[in-house]
Design a protein that fits this description.
With 332 residues, the protein is α+β, with helices and mostly antiparallel strands. The chain contains twelve helices and 13 strands. The chain has three domains: 96 residues; 67 residues, Dna Ligase, domain 1 (2-Layer Sandwich), CATH 3.30.1490; 102 residues, ATP-grasp fold, B domain (D-amino Acid Aminotransferase, Chain A, domain 1), CATH 3.30.470.20. Strands 8, 9, 10, 11, 12 and 13 form a six-stranded antiparallel beta sheet that branches. A hairpin with a 5-residue loop joins strand 12 and strand 13.
């Protein structure tokens, strides 16, 4: 089958052959892993890197006429907030593509809107408030310290550090101002739910398969540190080694609780209009209450990373995992 793999690239001037040389040399990028899996499966693959102009993308798609576009875009013009626009473009030009719709990508990026929708569906979320630049910062009385302050519209833990956790109103005001100044967007302030950081992968559409639970585990934090998924805890390998932070399969979760987590995450998947695959981040409190933190409609799917490893534990080796995403998209 003819499949175009599209992705944001530092080298949009490269043609398909140049990207495929990187694939052959086993370069470590999610788009190369996906293309390699698809080619191994016998598909006719065209790789298209996207830069600051969508015209070359549209021209190459028009020439290739793929039956499916594997959408690996995480933004446009180095702005992750525009990831929905590429899906919208594919919709407008009538291309079938993998992954979530523009609506899901746009809504799930807004942490406040996500929580309002989830709460409507009866899903427990941390108490929260939203503060825009210029707002008078008055903490609602129901928001109890400690609180965690995040950028409203970022993902991948961008803007989250140990300093994001605040214990008093002056610190809260300072961190909110930092978000406004550095990220030029509203801040969302949530009650910090102490507990286990659990990630739930899902594959499917009307019928969902919940993948084995994974968990971010922490070594012994230093005085004053919190067990939270900061940007460094997720992406800085030296920091992870120093702090003994690992992503592992969750242990000691009963079948009953695993089933309840799966039901909650499946409801969230459908409530936010996700398609084909996604990941849901939850906090499992000491009393086994499940608090849903975020829904990711465009999670990292590189080989040997957490979602692919969860799929493998469920019986889907990487090539089969990518083919499953293709099959789900084609069946819609």
């Amino acid at each position: 089958m003819k499949i175009a793999v599209i992705f944001d690239s530092l080298h949009p001037e490269w043609e398909d052959a140049a990207f495929k040389r990187e694939v052959e040399q086993k370069a470590e990028e999610a788009e190369y892993d996906v293309a390699r899996a698809l080619m191994t499966g016998g598909h006719d693959v065209l790789m298209i890197g996207i830069g600051d102009d969508v015209a070359p993308l549209l021209a190459k798609l028009a020439d290739f006429q793929p039956k499916l576009v594997f959408n690996g875009c995480e933004g446009f013009r180095k702005n992750a907030r525009h990831e929905y626009a590429i899906a919208a473009l594919l919709d407008m030009y009538g291309y079938r593509y993998t992954g979530s719709s523009p609506t899901a990508l746009l809504v799930a990026r807004n942490k406040s809107l996500t929580k309002k929708i989830l709460a409507y569906h009866g899903i427990r979320v941390p108490a929260f408030a939203e503060f825009h630049e210029g707002d008078k910062l008055v903490r609602p009385s129901e928001l109890r310290f400690p609180l965690i302050v995040k950028p409203l519209l970022e993902d991948a833990s961008i803007g989250i550090a140990q300093a994001s956790v605040v214990e008093d109103d002056p610190s809260l005001a300072q961190r909110v101002e930092f978000i406004h100044t550095k990220y030029h967007q509203a801040a969302i302030v949530e009650e910090l739910v102490e507990g286990r950081e659990v990630y739930v992968g899902l594959i499917g559409n009307d019928k969902l398969e919940v993948l084995p639970l994974t968990e971010m585990t922490f070594g012994e934090p230093e005085m004053g540190e919190h067990r939270i998924a900061t940007y460094k805890a997720k992406w800085d390998e030296d920091y992870r080694k120093k702090k003994k932070i690992k992503n592992v399969f969750a242990k000691g979760v009963s079948d009953e609780l695993t089933g309840r987590i799966g039901e909650i995450c499946s409801t969230a998947f459908h409530a936010l209009w996700l398609q084909d695959y996604g990941r849901v981040d939850v906090r499992l409190a000491h009393d086994n209450e499940v608090y849903l933190l975020e829904v990711n409609p465009n999670p990292f799917i590189a080989a040997e990373h957490e979602l692919a490893e969860a799929a493998e534990k469920a019986g889907l080796k990487y090539n089969a995992f990518i083919q499953r995403i293709v099959d789900e998209a084609m069946a819609r």
